[in-house]
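HUMAN: Quick job: go over this next protein and say how the chain folds.
***
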Amino acid sequence: MRSRRVRFSAGVSAHMTEQDIDIKTILDRAGGYSPSCLPFIRDGLAHTVEAVHGRTEMELMELEDEHRHVTGQQLCIGLRDHAVRQYGMLAKAVLNKWGIYETRDFGQIIFAMVDAGLMRKTDEDTLEDFDGVYDFDEAFAEPAMGNGLEPAGS
């Protein structure tokens, strides 16, 4: 049995075997998303935390959870920004291929990961925080692609 390191939120990491974690089952329960989206979600979270807090994920690992937290809205914007940086004009098409069509889909994935113990949330965080943060057609239109998160302290 292969062991793999799973690290999804700023500060949450664990050594698990494939028996311990079945990503496909987690994503199927969330709404049938492709497992291919998980590295993107993980990296997009790290990008968002760094943009919001002005520190790298490694620097934030030493801080308390509340000093690493990002809101659902911040995460949606950060994931959009990360998608544009990674995939350019194909960002929306790539997200759609994974089954992600609206910001609530990001929330469904995040909360499925929270339920599986792969991420953490605060008591104030809700799935509704991800509702209607932006319209995908507008957010991934060419003129809108430059409106991402600014790193803290810029």
